[in-house]
Hints:
Blueprint: E1 4-7, E2 11-14, H1 15-28, H2 47-53, E3 69-75, E4 80-86, E5 97-103, E6 118-121, E7 125-131, E8 140-147, E9 150-153, E10 180-182, H3 192-196, E11 201-207, H4 208-211, E12 223-227, E13 230-234, H5 236-251, E14 255-261, H6 293-309, E15 320-323, H7 341-360, E16 367-372, H8 389-401, E17 409-412, H9 444-451, E18 465-467, H10 478-494, E19 498-503, H11 510-513, H12 530-537, H13 548-554, H14 559-565
Helix pairs in contact: 6-7, 7-8, 10-12, 10-13
Amino acid sequence: MHWKVTVAGKRTLSLAVLIMLLGILYGCGRYAPASADAGPGGKTPSGQERIARGTIRTAVENLETHTSEMELFYDRETEQIVCFLSMPRIPESDDGNLYLFARGCYDDSEKLTGNPVAVGVKGKVCRISFPCEQGYLFCRFVPALLIAGDYVPVREGLFLSNPQDMAGNQDAYPQPASKKGLLLDPAMLYTEETAQLGVKHAIYNIPLSLIMGETTNEICPTIEYMYQGTCYHYNGAELFAYDTLFTYLTDMGMCNTAIVLNDWNDNYPEMIHPQARNRESGAYYYMFNTADQEGARALEATASFLAERYSSGEHGMVHSWVIANEINQHHLWNYMETGNLDYYAGEFEKAFRIFYQAIKSRYAGARVYYSIDHDWNSNEGDNSRYFNARDLISAFDQAAKAHGNYDWGIAIHPYPAPLTRVNYWSQKYDKTMDADVLTIMNLSAVTDFFRQEAYRDTSGEVRSIAITELGFSSGAGEKLQAAAFAYCYYIAEANPYIDALILNRQTDAPEEMRQGLAFGIYGYDHSEKYVKEIFSRIDTEDGKNYTDFMLNILGADSLEEALAWAQ
Length: 567
């Protein structure tokens, strides 16, 4: 039979000519060679040859279309990493093997070099297992075939999907009695006043410049931490202060959150992304560096050190971690000189995943967040000023899924707009996902967004959402501030998708007061404000007895009516 192939609907080519043309293409652009039932001279090929020849011929650039599923996980029983790869149609290659390469997050080169970490037999379902080594936690594992002497990826690589199964601490996340939290004043710790506040969630910053580097303190000397053959140094004196703090908070029964901040550090420039190394930028914090091996390794070491230190309870517990601050504000709070949203989100996601893998591999129940401010969808397409929080979340989600979805959470700061506004209920708000600004009155903008199936976590559940910073100034009156807090608390309490409400702050801060923002429940001189008693009582059995004044200020007949305004 003489086969012909139609080209562009008119011309026809014989199969022999077509094969000849494909042969020319194979020499120019590499194709996986065709399979055959018999070898040279009509001999039946060996089993290894059959595996090598596979079932299809395909262009190298099309290899990824022939893999349908990939899984990469840690087997707790065998203490090995297991990779499954499905190839319904098996591409032909130089041999019958599937190779697995480990690549650091900084390695974006197209060509695979070096030695594979594991080798298996290729097939419709491939299984490769191999021992877990230090550093693999932060590696992207790329499957490849050997074609024309080169290792060619057959799909995007994946990170280990279940670091929590490696954790020594398998405790679940605690279930505090309420969502009430506070940024505590270190000067008021260990006092009866703080104990009486009934705080369930506490939050503190960890600027990396404080803890990285050596100290001359003889009582709390430098801590040496070995990682990947390099000794990293951490300030024992500063860490002793954090140890004492987190131990106290843990003993008080609080659920503790730490915010990791990458501030400028002349001694560790490798911690800052090359496109963020501008000391004159005026930024408070900077993008983490995952662009090169030195920076990524230092970040891996620091993330591992912190996770290890505060996951066992020996130095106090940190239950939740927030990585960086208000990352959509890329000129001020997470500086990087770019207006390219996808690139920015991709670089941040790589750093975030390092922290996530380190934290979850020590404490299985930990929650790991990144934070956004209230600029939800308001920049009108001008990314030079700041990124819309909604757009950034979408870009981050895409970057994460490219190398394996995981259970990151979102920390929100739904301040009124402007920040000095206290009677936020007097405005009307767009409560859809298209809202310009995210506030306590339109939480549905963010909760409805995360209720979408596309943004759910690996179990199909709505991701953890926490309010980790929110405050109302007492500048317009202490009772108005107290009403604003009480109403806000009841709104958050009624929303099943909000896991915590952490108020900013226990004591007025001078730098905020200069902006007209007296957020504290105590004055700068530690004098009590009206809101202090409301804060202490609001989540107790008789809490509502202390909030009747709120309804008069709101102009509502009942709490139910007031809550309906925010739905």
